[in-house]
Amino acid sequence: MTTPALLPLSGRRIPPLNLGPPSFPHHRATLRLSEKFILLLILSAFITLCFGAFFFLPDSSKHKRFDLGLEDVLIPHVDAGKGAKNPGVFLIHGPDEHRHREEEERLRNKIRADHEKALEEAKEKLRKSREEIHAEIQTEKSKVAQSMKIKETRVLPPVPVPQRIGVSGGDPEDTEIRKKREKIKEMMKHAWDNYRTYGWGHNELRPIARKGHSTNIFGSSQMGATIVDALDTLYIMGLHDEFMDGKKWIEDNLDFSVNSEVSVFEVNIRFIGGLLAAYYLSGEEIFKTKAVQLAEKLLPAFNTPTGIPWAMVNLKSGVGRNWGWASAGSSILAEFGTLHMEFVHLSYLTGDLTYYKKVMHIRKLLQKMDRPNGLYPNYLNPRTGRWGQYHTSVGGLGDSFYEYLLKAWLMSDKTDHEARRMYDDAVEAIEKHLIKKSRGGLVFIGEWKNGHLERKMGHLACFAGGMFALGADGSRKDKAGHYLELGAEIARTCHESYDRTALKLGPESFKFDGAVEAVAVRQAEKYYILRPEVIETYWYLWRFTHDPRYRQWGWEAALAIEKYCRVSGGFSGVKDVYSLTPTHDDVQQSFFLAETLKYLYLLFSADDLLPLDHWVFNTEAHPLPVLRLANTTLSGNPAVR
Ligand code: DMJ
């Protein structure tokens, strides 16, 4: 790079005024006054001429083009505009020239200095030993770890905590009902105590082998899934010693800085949901702190080209990926669509809108997409933003997405109209294309696969009975009665799926094909793994109708669980509900304590325990309070609107 010669504005040279000592002193004394006067006159005429020449030059001569030849040091001219062809050519306005020259010089010096500094640093590095370099890297690492720790232990802003309404009590008046409720509490104690003895700290329990158990959804680490999932059930049942025991384990052991790949959905609904519910019920800060620490670890899962999160994320590295079996690398509707409730609460509690924005982005993206027959396919590719296989279900892979649309509306104190609209549209399409009546008069929800309806309903889809009942109030065209009735029909069908088995426990999935109604056909669909959905639906229907049949059906299920799933080391799933000599699968699922036993307990409690106008249950049965934001904001801070 060469510095261009800088020329004066006019291009002429002005002879310097000699104000110094006279150049011909020997004449000085001899000059007379008149001569001095004439000289002065000539001088002033000359100055006037120069001055005039400067002012009367044509305007264009004031602008001079300079080709700086500096492609990398650009001081764009204000008039250059977007279409300027040669960014190296500058138009320099007269009065600005000096400033530009200085700026140019400054930049050049800075570049030179930076280069020299980088060179020095590189030389310095080369002189260092491997050990020294290694030590430096370690120091840098611990600095980063330290700053992350500070972030982890940071004090969260105080926000108005919603009132803890109906967090205990609910004693039923009827003695018979009270006894049943006591029995459910005893079952909870049996499940918890055995986990405490044989599986403490592990994710789940093997009640027959009497040891810890885990699956890939929890990653490779012992994160005490059962403890976190069970906390709120223990709390509402008044099992306070057990609750405090769980709290202590969480305080001392629950650590998310582990090299472990977990399911974003499962960790969100069980851990974040469980911790948030424990916080709102008990008011203990530790649960909120842990929920936020974990949520921060999940955020890298959203780093995809579309913002649709990966199904799994490594809690340490933040690397995400999808399940190998999910339609050509797709993310799953029921997974990325079941984050809203927890993430809205996280933003509320932290004052950090990041969580809220992540889930709203998902919603906006879904709204823009075409939906075949108005139905949402279960698979969406997070790289391309396109649907994967056209498979729609209200059971597995789709279920809780619909549930969260409705619950987003309820949780917002019925102000999130967009969510309600999306729920109503989705339910209308589901009713039109997926809900059918069998020959024997049972209403079921089928699955849409590549253009045809499969007449099969999963145990998971049985939750929809409760969802339709919960969404009845506020439905379009005042169809509340219709949706309550639809919920009741689904409850009846799911009860039939239980009643038509040997164990009075429902299979994983059942068919409606010719003479086959509400019965599993394939061996691989005959298992019952302590799932809650049918009992969940009984409970919602009970709350809205107080029809005693729901308590009766719930009790039948409780007795069957007690009879066929209870073992001395806890509770286990069974492999074939049509066989009177059941084989156990030897797994006590964490959702048995979080959901199944909680819904049973609520079914035999009075309605003032966790009233539905104040609490909304996440898909893992963790109650989160309705956020009434009229006097505050989502970030909890009245100043941030
Ligand atoms: C639970 O983890 C949740 O209810 C989820 O939404 C689906 N299934 C299991 C229990 O069956």
How are the SSEs placed, and which strands pair?
Elements: H1 25-28, H2 33-56, E1 64-67, E2 89-92, H3 97-127, H4 130-152, H5 175-199, E3 204-206, E4 211-213, H6 225-236, H7 240-253, E5 261-263, H8 264-282, H9 285-298, E6 312-314, E7 320-321, E8 331-332, H10 333-336, H11 340-350, H12 354-368, E9 379-380, E10 391-392, H13 399-411, H14 417-433, E11 435-437, E12 443-445, E13 447-449, E14 452-454, E15 456-458, H15 463-472, H16 480-499, E16 509-513, E17 516-519, H17 533-545, H18 549-565, E18 566-567, E19 570-571, H19 590-603, E20 615-617, E21 623-625
Antiparallel strand pairs: 1-2, 3-4, 5-6, 6-7, 8-9, 10-13, 11-12, 13-14, 15-16, 16-17, 18-19, 20-21
Helix pairs in contact: 5-19, 6-7, 6-8, 6-19, 8-9, 9-11, 11-12, 13-14, 15-16, 15-17, 16-17, 17-18, 17-19
The chain binds 1-deoxymannojirimycin (DMJ).
